[in-house]
Amino acid sequence: MSIDLNDHPIDEKLLKLFSAEEYDLCINRCRLILTEDRLHLQALLYMAQISLEKRDYNDCLQYCDTVLQEVEEHMVYVWYWRGQALCLLRKYDDGIDSFKRALWYNPENIHAWSQIAVTLFQQGKKDFAMLFLDTVEEKHNLIGKFSMARGFIERAGGNTDEAFIHFLQGGMAVDLNSKDYEENRDAYFKEIRRTLN
């Protein structure tokens, strides 16, 4: 039995709990739902996200893998969460493989490309990580899209001046017409404040 993407019921109470970040109550409701339907997509996705948020990385992997076994081709973001959990467990190569799967479905996924670069940096390959971002920017015409990743890498490497410049450039380049304009702008300015402190 697999998950039918055209026929997965939305549990409104679960949606409200998750949206309100009532994670403990949401987990309890998800577990109840999953005892009745082990492949309830909404409950599985919420459990994966909450597990990642709560740093229960092995649980996150379990939920991601359950979803991916059933609806692999449609779940780009689940591959991304899986990659994050693996990297946080220091399984960097496996994490990069998951990010690559996300990119296979969506080659313009800025977060997955950025996460690969950050993971390369975590493996002690800073120069390669920056070269990687340069190459991706040029090949996929994503110039300026990796300011956040570059800023994180520079700050983690102790170069706060370069980090500040990258965050500032990113904040100034946010698309004014984007529906996420304010959220993206605020994310950059939050990192600028952190870098200055």
Query: How widely separated are the two ends?
Result: 53 Å
Number of domains: 2
CATH level-1 class of the largest domain: Mainly Alpha
Strand content: under 5%
Arithmetic mean pLDDT: 90
Please mark out the parts with pLDDT under 50 across 5 or more consecutive residues, or reply none. Answer: none
Order of helices and strands: HHHHHHHHHHH
Shape: globular
- Total beta strands: 0
- Name the CATH homologous superfamily of the largest domain: Tetratricopeptide repeat domain
Which percent range fits the helix content?
A: over 70%
Kindly report the CATH topology of the largest domain: Serine Threonine Protein Phosphatase 5, Tetratricopeptide repeat
- Report the sheet with the most strands, covering strand number, pairing sense and barrel closure: none
Count up the helices.
11
* CA-atom Rg in angstroms: 18 Å
Instruction: Just name the CATH architecture of the largest domain.
Output: Alpha Horseshoe
- Structural class category: mainly alpha
What does the model show?
- By secondary structure, the chain is mainly α.
- The protein has 2 domains: 12-145, Tetratricopeptide repeat domain (Serine Threonine Protein Phosphatase 5, Tetratricopeptide repeat); 146-197, no CATH class.
- Helices cover 73% and strands 0% of the residues.
- It has 11 helices and no strands.
- The longest helix is centred in the last third of the chain and has 16 residues, at 181-196.
- The mean pLDDT is 90.
